[in-house]
Amino acid sequence: MIDLLGYGAFFLSTALIFALITLGLNLQWGLTGLFNVGISGFVAIGAYASAILTTPATPDRIGGFGWPILLGWAAAALLTAAAAAFTGYATLRLKSDYLAITTFGVAVVVQLVALNAQVLTGGPFGVAFIPRPFAAVQADPVLFNFANLAVIAAVTGATFLALQRLSRSPWGRVLRALREDERAAIALGKSARSYRIQAFAVGGAVMGLAGAVQAHFIGFIAPDNYLPTLTFQVWAMLMVGGSGSNRGAVMGAIVVWAIWVGSGSLTSAIVPGDWQARAASLQIVAIGVMLCLILLWRPQGFFGARRRGA
Amino acid sequence: MSLQFLLNGLVNGSMIGLGAIGITLTYSILRFSNFAHGDFMAWGAYAALAVVGVLGGSTPLKPLSFGWPLMTALVVAMALTALLALVLDWLLFARLRARGQSIIVVMASFGASMALRNLLEFVFTSRPAYYSRAIQIAMPLGLGIKITADQIALLLLTVVLVTGMHLFVQRSQRGREMRAYSQNPALARVIGIDVDAVVRATWIIGAALACASGVMVGTLVQLRPLMGLDLLLPIFAAAILGGIGSIPGAVLGGLVIGLSEAAAVQVIGAEWRAAVAFVILMAVLLIRPMGLFGVAER
User: Which of A69, A79, A217, A226 has the most Cβ atoms closer than 10 angstroms to its Cβ?
Assistant: First the structure.
């Protein structure tokens, strides 16, 4: 029973971190129509930034500044926002596909830096000993898990409310106007490019924050955490939830993560050992097919607002 | 410093260029960037592997590492890859294209790419595979450059395919229709161009060349389910560098990227190779987004 409670808290914490990433994507795609295929890269930037700033000093690695966790999170969000803003600056005066291709490239390069810039990122071994919130109560797993869940829920909840307000603000209305009818919005004197760069940067900041929160929740990061599969999972979450709706983004993240974990443990229980790797790839095939089916039959998702564009 | 990297760059560049032709055609005619294009390469390469398995091994045509089975398999696999592209278009892309939001099609191609790649991993596992284990003796070419018979054969194949494609698009009736449609879809419809046939021709050409490129990678390096994903960024960068819609541009872009990658491997180190395409892509987007032979967007 205690185990189950602890596991429930752990599951929900992970799902809420995914929800945070999905909220960032919803601002970029759902509200503004910006296609980001490099989510894993932006999450990784945040995770590594905070990890490098907050870990205790290590002799074989640059970094280890021992900053407080909250300061690391803020720096992670800022740095990721800057990276996203630059990506947007380079591509957002061009056709939307160029942004997609460039973000894909960002993910490739971030992965490469994480693997090869050993003095900064620890290379394939990653960064360990990332300070975890409430490390003092780590001996009591249930208390520890629930304390962490509370922090993650608070961060996700605060971001949710902030994004909710932002999307109803005049700023959010301009973004929706640009998505629905670019010419009309431009005719009203709104700079499409500048608003889109802002939205992309803010969405990037949320993704970077999520990466940092996850890094401190797990306490260890490695390049393998930030493969294209992550990008793909987050897209599936937003599409299931319904793009354009923050509530849908959170619900989609929890539902897809539950399906992912459930089907994962089901296959590892019934599939014999040497077939497990194959079963894992079949799991991704299923999600890919599901994404395509949703695009075909239910583009508004399952938990989104009933009214289109709300 | 050995000049060998020039030859390696040329060979890799021609594989990238062949892939970029498909990307550039899909982008200029179907108006979306196809993230599943890299997986067409991988599927083509594995299709050829399966056909070689069915035909059974035979003695290679010396001094090549392969013989008639692989050459037959290449033709069959090109047809199969084209079929795959057409089926995917019929199931997915055509329906979404009809709704008119091109970025949704891009997303669908991303989902399809994930599914295709992992299906390949499911069937063939992630272990590398090879068409042949024959060892190639490289012949000295002068200036410290060595070349294998396979490399000569595949460079010749690239020249034949690219020239053939260029002539088809420039001279044949269907090629003219493709160009007309890419320049002005509405007008092309009005004058009675068979749009479905144009779309089919685009997929067939793009997928067949992707397959050829995949088989080349499989012959010279190895087959892995991730081989297409790894080539995706270089082929996008090559298509944009060459200018969207231009076949000679795509090939030239591929060669530039291949040579730059080889130079980077020589000077900086092999582990940073994948960053080269990104650096070139960013430079093109910031300095000359229309690419070398592109036309300004209307």
Answer: A226
* B285 closest CB neighbour out of A98, A229, A299: A98
Residue B204 falls inside a structural domain: yes
Condensed to tens digits (0 to 9), the pLDDT of residues A192-249 reads: 889 999 999 999 999 999 999 999 998 889 999 998 889 989 998 998 888 888 999 9
Domain presence at residue B253: no
> How close does chain B come to A239, measured CA to CA in Å?
10
CA distance B45 to B212: 8
Number of separate domains in chain A: 1
Taking contacts as CB-CB distances below 8 angstroms, the residues of chain A near B122 are 278, 281-282, 285
The pLDDT value recorded for residue A310 is: 37
Who among A94, A112, A299 is closest to B289 (CB)?
A94
Q: How far apart are CA A142 and CA B19, in angstroms?
A: 53
Q: Give residue B129's domain range.
A: 19-225
Asked whether residue B272 is assigned to any structural domain, the reply reads no
What is the C-alpha to C-alpha distance for residues A89 and A63, in angstroms, rounded to an integer? 29
> Are the beta carbons of A108 and B278 separated by less than 8 Å?
yes
Compute the nearest-CA separation of A248 from chain B (Å). Answer: 19
Which of chain A's residues have a Cβ under 8 Å away from the Cβ of B110? 37, 232, 235
| B114 → chain A, closest CA residue | A288
Q: Taking a C-beta distance cutoff of 8 angstroms, is the pair B202, B178 a contact?
A: yes
How far are the Cα atoms of A118, B160, B164, B287 from residue B214, in angstroms, in the given order? 32, 16, 19, 31
Give the whole-angstrom CA distance, residue B216 versus residue B150: 9
Q: Which residue of A has its CA nearest to B237?
A: A101
Distance from CA of B271 to the nearest CA of A (A): 7
Q: What is the pTM (predicted TM-score) of this model?
A: 0.90
Tell me if B271 is assigned to some domain.
no
The count of other CB atoms within 10 Å of the CB of residue A79 is: 20
What is the token pair recorded at B43? 């599927």
Q: Write b or e for each residue in B155-190: b if 16 or more Cβ atoms lie within 10 A of its Cβ, otherwise e.
A: bebbeebbeebeeebeeeebbebbbebbeeeeebee
For residue A237, tell me if it sits in a domain.
no
Our count of domains for chain B comes to 1
Written as six digits, the tokens of A272 are: 């014999």
Average pLDDT, chain B: 87
What domain range is A125 assigned to? 2-225
Q: Rounded to whole angstroms, how far apart are CA atoms B233 and B231?
A: 6
> Which of B35, B103, B116, B120 is the best substitution to test chain A (most A C-beta atoms within 10 A)?
B103
Check: CB of residue A107 under 8 Å from CB of residue A99: no
Residue A83 lies in a domain: yes
Confirm whether A42 is domain-assigned. yes
Which residues of chain B neighbour A109 with C-beta distances below 8 Å? 274-275, 278
Q: What is the pLDDT of residues B75-95, one digit of tens each?
A: 999 999 999 999 999 988 888
Is A185 part of any domain? yes
